[in-house]
Design a protein that fits this description.
4-stranded antiparallel beta sheet, 125 residues, alpha+beta
Length: 125
């Protein structure tokens, strides 16, 4: 079933042109890939994924955003699972993954950046 948020998003997109709803990627600061750094209390991981858009139809754009979020989450999970030693800090379901940004390049692609850090994990508990 559809969540209230996805229904609201679909309705909102039907009233606004899709290119005005999302920021252009021309000045988007994050490039595709994964970065990590040691921070107080653990590690901060940032994943940016780009997914091609099939058309400028709002449904296709939202589907691409969903796929980009999914791929970024998978990228974070793979990084954590392949890390050195036993990482009990991140075992189980990933809690604390937050969206840091997103953009849409008209009729080309969407880009989504997700991140996780000790701070976001603590906020999710």
């Amino acid at each position: 079933m559809f969540s209230k948020v996805s229904i609201f998003t679909a309705i909102a997109l039907s009233f606004f042109s899709i290119e005005k709803t999302f920021a252009s990627c021309s000045s988007y600061p994050a490039k595709e890939g994964l970065t990590s750094e040691i921070v107080e209390g653990g590690i901060k991981i940032i994943s940016t994924t780009q997914v091609n858009v099939l058309s400028d139809n709002p449904k296709d754009v939202m589907k691409a955003f969903g796929k980009a979020k999914e791929l970024s989450t998978i990228q974070i999970q793979r990084f954590i699972s392949q890390g050195p030693g036993e990482n009990t800090y991140f075992q189980g379901t990933l809690k604390g993954v937050v969206q840091l940004g997103s953009c849409y390049e008209l009729k080309k692609y969407v880009r989504v950046t997700l991140g996780i850090s000790p701070k976001t994990i603590k906020q999710a508990e």
